[in-house]
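Problem: given the chain below (598 residues), write out its structure.
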Amino acid sequence: MENFAKLREEVLRLKKPGDIEKLLKYKTPYERFRETALSRYNRYALHYFGNNITYGELLGLIDRMANGFAAQGIGYDDVVTVSTLGTPSGIAAFYALDKIGALMHMVNSASSAKEVARELKHCPSKYVVMNDVFCSDEVMDTLNHMHVEKIMTTSLLDYFPMGFNFDRIKFNIAEAAKGLKQKKYDNKRILTLDQVITHGKEKHIEVEAASFKTGHEANIAYTSGSTGDSKGCVGDWNAIDAMVQVMAMTEQGRFQAGDIMFTTFPTWINYALLNMIHEPLCLGVSIALDPLFNPKDLAKRNNLYHFNHWLTIPPYIKVMAEANKKTDCSKWKIVLTGGAELDNETKYAGDAYIARNNGTAKIQQGYGANELLGAFAYGYYPNATVGSVGKPCIGNKIKIVDPETLKELPTNEVGLALVYSPSLMKRYYNNEEATKKSFIKDEDGTVWYNTEDLMRVNEKGEVFLVDRIRRMVLTLDENGNPTKIIPSRPKKAIEQLNMVDHCEIITVKDDKTVNKSIAFIKTTKGTAQDETLKQNIIEFCEQQVPKYMAPREVIYLDEFPLNATKKVDLKALEKMYEEQHTGKETTKSKNKTFLKRK
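Solution.
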């Protein structure tokens, strides 16, 4: 195996960002995993509700599954739609298909039949591998209509330990209610992964692992689409393996072989597939799984798995702190959040919870994107500044530029963030225009990714996310002069108030000012939701930000709609406003509510 400590020293001496690619020694994901598996053959790779699977056992399962996939006709460069949760068979399927050299088209398992049809129209494939719990009659009809030739399913109970278990009962109920009925299986066109493996044995197929080839397209993972249309990010073997090597350099002294990472997210998200499964496994860190994780079960899972690392999202940290169930946090080393902003209140509450439960870990925030195949920056160093998303991982680079001229800006100035990473995607699938827009080549030939995010970098090299450029819209100020609404500014102003639990700002068309902002808020428990409070929130916000940025209207919500990656679905809020808005203007109130800041 490579000496990643030495590689880190060499990379830190580089002057030109793209030169790191000359130092990296590339392998396919299957080859990278196999190398670790052979060196840790009898050590545990996966923990699944009491069933502990060794690296050797997992490698054997992968090889048998690859033989079975080949028996179904899957070959090099064939497109296979993969829609699996984080289970042993889902993980094995990823490596087995990569061993063959197939292109994995990763689709959200919770997609509606209409969404499945859209994704298969966007990227046609003859083969589908998915969890049977999501194979509703409507989805199966869609797969038939889209002329899918092979439907191969896996159960949540595959590789689940035998015996009485409440989680087994839960999974059984879920699959009985929603899963594919047994009578539908014909062991030819519709079959289980166990049957797939049996076919490989019966046909005596032995798949030879595909050799590494620069630029080979390995997977397509979709962006969340929370602020726009979802796009398919194509990851090639170079970028996927670069992600492992970048993280191996960055995690020096933090990841130890034999550590356990708790992983709860599905494989269709790059951050989950590569940062929570592939990377740790290749670095000797075993994975503890819960594919239908309820954050209220955190203490229970910790007691079962005794894990050291937890990559999660801010809403789960909030549930942990508010539930306040006792759990031993003494073994926790890394607790990292992504996918949404980690506000200071949630971070401090989470840190306090860990400290009360014998832990020393501090919750850190990271930044990444499917275009970068996962994590780009996070607080992997001591004393990360609260509010930052950390520093770029070793080998990754960032520069802040003027959005109009692309001229680099001074330290601490807010501008458009361009980032470089050897794990940058190859392209957007079937979207050449978006690819050209997102890739910017500098005078040295280095290709930078246009994040469309507004950021700043401080004197310590730490990155602060300010807002998304695509969410900035044109408006007119009180004097009719053109200016811009930056949604994060009124959002942060309103969230200062102690009666506001959560706020999101959307922008909608307006006849007088081109665009205006609308606030959706969830109030704290016990707060009276009346028109007076709405108007007082608007007036308070007008004192904190320019009046043209302050919301014209406040709408109460009990819960915010979330997309598949657990981010607030802003498009759903826009649709909600469009469908439900009455058109009535908020009237001025003569009464005042005394507003307290947090």
